[in-house]
Design a protein that fits this description.
Elements (H helix, E strand, L loop, with lengths): L8 E6 L2 E6 L10 H16 L5 E6 L19 H16 L5 E5 L2 E3 L1 H8 L2 E5 L3 E3 L13 H9 L1 H10 L3 E2 H6 L5 E3 L4 H13 L3 H14 L4 H16 L2 H12 L13
Parallel strand pairs: 2-3, 3-4, 4-6, 5-7, 6-9
Antiparallel strand pairs: 1-2, 7-8
């Protein structure tokens, strides 16, 4: 049973946006095993809630997330059990069929950075600092970083970032393609709002199909990607959003996408 004392992750839903907050500011939002379970559950809740059209992951206070605090959790001391918690959160984020946006200020370190890497889009302010940090602590990448980093920056840069454990700032992260936007601190919330407002109004089925195609495309042949695109088109054509998009285009009005469908 979760209590106020061990609550490390919260979720709030408003206007189509599910905001998942990593909430342990006294330790830079580092999550212990219980915290990763809470992150997994919050992401699953967002995934199953039709009121949520886009997910924002953010940190409480001055930092995004300074990584894992697994040494704090002695309920299941074996590392394999702890990593099951971490992997459950990573899988819930990767499988999320809704767009995810990381809102990053301050430090995103180790597993904290992996959370950001796992999001579809990343908005960072100029205070953001990123580091894998794993080797500096006698560890190796977790929460999907070994899979995500090479696909974003290429194998050589992934090795540089992972082996040296160096810290890079928001501008360097932008140059490497590790973040999508960098803004001044007082513009962070406004930029996140602009992005999430658009995504919350987008056709949810088409968005989900697009995310799946792009994620799967990295490991598919060209022919397999074409087959996936054809299958996704058939799914999209079954939605009411196709009709709504046509109506909005013809009447020059804004569409109201619901993701509904009509059986024929």
């Amino acid at each position: 049973m979760l209590t106020a004392d061990n609550r490390q992750v919260s979720i709030r839903v408003a206007d189509g946006v599910g905001t998942v907050t990593l909430d342990a500011p006294e330790r830079g939002n580092a999550l212990d095993g219980n915290g990763f379970l809470q992150l997994r559950d919050a992401l699953r809740q967002a995934s199953s809630d039709d009121a949520v059209r886009v997910v924002v992951i953010t940190g409480s206070g001055k930092n995004f997330c300074t990584g894992a605090a697994l040494g704090r959790d002695r309920a299941h001391p074996h590392p394999l059990r702890s990593m099951q918690y971490v992997n459950g959160a990573a899988t819930a984020l990767h499988d999320l069929a809704k767009p995810s946006v990381a809102r990053v200020r301050g430090h995103a370190i180790g597993a904290g950075w992996s959370i950001g890497l796992g999001c579809d889009l990343v908005v960072a302010d100029t205070s953001a600092k990123f580091s894998t940090m794993f080797t500096n602590r006698g560890l190796s990448p977790d929460l999907g970083a070994s899979w995500l980093l090479p696909r974003i920056v290429g194998l050589q840069q992934a090795k540089r970032l992972s082996l040296l454990g160096e810290s890079i700032d928001a501008t360097q992260a932008l140059d490497l393609g590790l973040v999508t936007w960098v803004v001044d601190p007082d513009e962070l919330d406004a930029q996140v709002f602009r992005i999430t407002s658009r995504l919350a109004q987008a056709p949810p089925v088409a968005v989900a199909q697009t995310i799946a195609l792009l994620n799967e495309g990295a490991d598919c042949s060209f022919a397999q990607s074409l087959t996936g695109e054809a299958r996704a088109l058939a799914v999209n054509l079954a939605t009411d959003d196709i009709v709504e998009a046509r109506r909005a285009f013809q009447t020059k009005t804004s569409p109201n996408f619901t993701g509904g469908w009509s059986a024929s």
